[in-house]
Amino acid sequence: MLFCLLSVHAVYAQNAPTEFLTDSVTYIWPTDASRYLSSTFAETRSAHLHSGIDIRTWGREGYKVFAARDGYVYRIGMGPSGYGNVIYLRHADGSFTVYAHLNRFEPDLQAYADSIRLIDYRFELDHYPRQQQIYYKQGDVIGFSGSTGVGPPHLHFEIRSPDYTPINPLLSNLSVADNLPPVFSRLAVEYLDSGTLHRTGHSVIPVRNENGAYHFGEITVSGPAGLAVNVHDRANRTPNVYAVHSLVLVSESDTLFKATADYFSFANGNNMFLDRSYPILSQTRRGYQRLYKVSANRLPFYSKSVNEGVLDLPEGTHELQIVARDIYGNESTAGLTVRSTASVDKPLSDGVYIPAYPSFEFQNPYPLYRWDTDFKRLSNLLLASSSSGLSVTTQASSQPVLVSAERMSARKTIAPGEYDILHTPNQKLWLQFSEASLFDSLDVKVSISENPASGDLSVAFSPTDLPLQQPVILNMILPDNMRNQDGLALYEIDHNRDRESFIPSRVSGGVLRAGLTRIRDLRLDRDNRAPWTGTPSFKKNLAGQHILVIPTVDRDSGINYRKSTILINGERGIIEYDPDRDWLIYYHPEFTPDASNEITYEVFDGVGNSRTGSATLRAPQ
Q1: What is the pTM of this model?
Q2: Rounded to an integer, what distance in angstroms lies between the CA atom of residue 530 and that of residue 373?
């Protein structure tokens, strides 16, 4: 590894993101852990497409990670989420390779990173060294595999084009042993409104596999529909399942739809929610890849389609084939018989618009608020309409009242590409939609309810559980009885999995603000419980350095590691956090325990509750 200055290489404009992958561009396998993959390119993730390949490390950390090509360090990062400890190398042609979830960097680069972090003792690092300051030759050790950012242990590896576009690494000279074809599991039929093509529901069909011949049987449709398939690839000598490389829908030798996952831009990575069927993904946690293209989808996968892949078949019986291929050309075909009972008076034409969001009429069966039975007995009824285009509702019931409450509601159609605000009639809650918040036009209703008995507050959306392109800002003027209360915590409700997740928020001047990454029902409550902490202990990291570990858990609002403190013999260190192990970690590259060590700490949760503690620890033998 060299610290030096090199001449700047000219980078020419690329006609296609993959054009730099010429025969002269070769990579070496980036680790000695294994030649097996746990994930491939463009797989389904929680909020985006997978932008690289994951290499198996057998549940262990500390394997060597090599520079796949000559290059200089363009960027390094450290932190408890995302890519964790990550290195970005830039190469002579302007392209990049990325090595993520590292346990640590090689010693010189780790010392460089620590010297920056020790300026303010901050855990996270996102640093761009001086151009071409730190240089590695192909095959140099640049770090060691780990599980930072997200577990379990593995190496995440990416190739990016000169314009920073993630490229499928298996398009390069890198390869794995694979002569196995993809495997079909299920087919979803998504029914579309004949007038608007809004999604109205779906049904799921398991595959039939007879001696390797796949078939989904016969389905009946009475109008336009889109297909989505749950299919995975396999590779030799590994139990993992992967995303397929391409999908084709064929009808009587005519190609209706074709998608191939070679590359995508990060700006469109969250279009996964449109490429996959988000309603089914949210309900089942399974990625069903659509064989039709939602109009707002900007991914570059789609090379051919008829009516964007939407089936709008004349009355009668039609035979379809779905062909799935991996990157090495191994393929499987599944048959499907479609019986159409619709008489198509006006067939769809190219350029048809397929909405990304459901229409207001087709909603989940979830109630607009979630209370006990008694609290649903409200006290008066008022229907009103505003002149601003908002439909406003305050609902109640004439049944005997045990708990009195009011639910304020507002409904509005919001278009992408422009800033807009949706607010309740009393303007105590408003949502700020940026120009890029939505994938498509959305007709949405928001309701706010307060439970005087428990003191908590709920916000409900209809439709609910919808993906966003960029966050929406929630603003809420708190009721008087909440304004001065500590520990206010905002949670989003996942109805499908019957669980809640904490959303970071802040309160200023009696107004709570939070960024919403999806449209999902919310609950505001109090978290007055301090984090749990276990017994501190000394350990050694993979470099043989002493660290102090404090087990700590907070299932309500999480651990605020940035605010937490640990002192050893009165000395500060870098406070790191491992969310997989539930460890708060004291780290200092020059720390060596004394014979007797006085430990003091204060651990904070996400809303400010804290637990303090102290211990005296002898140096480990």
Answers
A1: 0.90
A2: 31
